[in-house]
Fold this sequence. Notes:
The protein is α+β, with helices and mostly antiparallel strands. It contains three helices and eleven strands.
Amino acid sequence: MAAPETELDPRYGEPGAGPTSWADARRTLADAELSWLTTLRPDGRPHTTPLITVLDDDAVVFTTGPEEQKGRNLAVDARCSLTTGTNMWAEGLDVVVEGTAERVTGEEHLRTLAAAYLAKYGDPWRFEVDDGAFTSGGHVAHVFRVAPTTAYAFAKAPHSHTRFRFAG
């Protein structure tokens, strides 16, 4: 993926604070143990839930059962956002990714992503690949990736607000 256009919004930062690099925002996404996914219910109300993620190039990857609320929401409207960071005011980096969730079904790609989950989260998150999905303990999980269209980084030491716009 090409480097995004990066824009610092000085209205929301401390004087002299610079923009966050996409490399730093990407590292925050890759290292996050937990992220928050927001999807839209069919009536337009938001639904937010915590989940674990891995990175696939610059895209954030997550799983959901097709019968779960987020799975049902994505079947109607694939637009979503993922958020991660800290709950601290004066330290850390918060990152928000906005985009469209696309289901991953290719067997080889799924095996690569299953290995990424295992490497990041260990044996409790060992997935098998079967029929275009992850399986574990008799459960089926669809795999989605969200390539960012826009992302935001909120740095806190010093405070700054950076927007990343992605081509395509």
